[in-house]
Design a protein that fits this description.
- By secondary structure, the chain is mainly α.
- It has a domain at 24-68.
- The chain contains two helices and two strands.
- It has helices at residues 27-45, 48-63, and strands at 2-3, 9-10.
- It has a two-stranded antiparallel sheet.
- The chain is extended.
């Protein structure tokens, strides 16, 4: 829920139901957002505990994925004609 300037409660859909058309975001705003996200990720991975937790999660997640003929791990979206790398 959000409140308006006069203090009234305004109903808002849950974040899981909100849709964002990323193609409509101006390039300069997308660039600014990406700079913030990259900076935050860089700072997070400086923490050895965070990096170790991520690496454990990554190994567990990708161990479950099927391999293609080259031995690369791949994931598939619903009924796609070819597998794509995650």
């Amino acid at each position: 829920m959000a409140s308006s300037m006069d203090g009234q409660i305004i109903a808002q859909p849950p974040l899981s139901e909100m849709k964002v058309n990323v193609n409509a975001v101006p390039k300069h705003q997308m660039d600014a957002l990406c700079r913030v996200v990259i900076h935050c990720a860089t700072e997070a991975f400086k923490d050895p505990k965070f990096a170790a937790e991520y690496e454990a999660w990554r190994r567990e997640r990708y161990a479950k994925l099927p391999q293609n003929k080259k031995g690369d791990r791949v994931c598939q979206k619903k009924q796609t004609q070819s597998a794509r790398h995650c």
